[in-house]
Amino acid sequence: MKLPADLFLASLSPTDSATPIRLEHRILEVIGDRACLVSPMLDLGEYERLGLCQRELLESPHPIIVHRWGGEDHDQLFAGHEQAHWRITWRDWTLHAVQATWQTSCGGETRYWVIADTREIVEAFVLDVERRTNDPGESILVFHSGQWQRSRELYQATQLASFDDLVLSGSLKDVIRADFRQFLDARQRYESLGVAWRRGVLLIGPPGNGKTHCVRALVKELKIPSLYVQSLSSQYYTSEQLLMDVFERARRLHPCVLILEDLDALVTSDNQSFFLNQLDGFEKNVGLIVLATTNHPDRIDPAILDRPSRFDRKYHFGLPGLDERRAFLSLWHAKLAAETHWPSEAVDELAVATEDFSFAYLKELVVSSVLRWMAAPATDFTHILRVQCDELRSQMATKGR
Fold it and tell me: Cβ(82)–Cβ(64) under 8 Å?
């Protein structure tokens, strides 16, 4: 199938409400009796990466390829397409897909025209693309600026997390793990008792005491789809519209865990009523675990914080006591003692000296000490730890902690 070489040039100028009409009109002139289906979003690149089709980028009409830097963590250029025409091999069929992107008063607009020999083939293809690419698989769905993106990097970060490295007071760690496991195993029991199979969990406490680590370790252990809400702000949509998108996506993936980090920043007076309605209103959140965290419970309205049907489990992550500090430092001691000659008796001394340190400060104490020791390995490591402890305590006082 050969499309006009000037398809994009002629159809995308000027860009207005008739742009997609002009594009479709010219495409239909060429395809004859083939079937065509239009989609606003189709992740063909991900579908190909999953090994489910092969794409060949055609030179007519001329494609527009844009290159974006991956940032400091991924220091290379990544190619993407704004205008493109692909020949697609899928199962035993050959299809074509035309991608066009243009600007409107509300921002960028992208549409895909998928063409196949019959309506049955094109519908089956688009359905399979949507189903396969919307399943998170080995990634986490991240919601930001009104859009969902699959993050393999965040998923990999969760796979590196472990409850073995998480120190919490008493039996809190075991209680949290058992609570989630029992919930996921108890659907029939819930339904036989006429109780809604859903769960709201809120992790509360000052920063640096294991909430994020716990969330990542839970995502790894639960092995169900995970959605992470990074922000509820967009230039083009209200926070209520964004919340609707978030909960609708989560309901389609159940059972799943919906992560709302820093709940006090995401839910404000402007969207609180709508959030509460989505959380426990008429909508059925079957199999939905809403896992939220907050450093500032005082900023959360009592209607959210105190009503059991909304967050029926609240776990407090306070500053570590002496036993927790000793356990945390012992984990680091086991990793570093052979290299640094850190004596075991110094662990108890340091645990006592670090009263009011969060886990984050304890980690900073050890890591910064290791860096100083690496610069002067002849220096006694215990002495470096003492000096760093005093410096960090001074920083804490300056910050008003």
Answer: yes
Q: Which residue has the tokens 């839910």?
A: 267
Tell me how crowded residue 88 is: count the other CB atoms within 10 A of its CB.
21
First to last CA, the chain: 68
Report the SS3 class of residue 401: coil
**Are residues 49 and 23 in contact, defined by beta-carbon separation less than 8 angstroms?**
no
| Per-run averaged pLDDT (10 residues), the chain, 401 residues | 88 85 92 93 89 96 88 80 95 96 78 96 95 84 85 92 91 94 92 89 94 95 94 82 90 91 91 88 80 93 81 92 95 94 94 94 95 93 94 80 47
pTM: 0.75
Distance of alpha carbon 115 from alpha carbon 170, whole angstroms: 61
d(CA 391, CA 395): 6
Burial label for 22, CB within 10 Å (0-12, 13-18, 19+), is: middle
| Antiparallel, parallel or unpaired: β 64-69 and 77-90 | antiparallel
Q: How far apart are CA 11 and CA 29, in angstroms?
A: 13
Residue 112, both tokens: 């895909």
Q: Return the SS3 of 124.
A: helix
Which residue is associated with the tokens 């697609």? 88
Q: What is the DSSP letter of 152?
A: H
| Buried-exposed string 254-271: b where 16+ CB fall within 10 A, e elsewhere | bbbbbbbbbbbebbeeeb
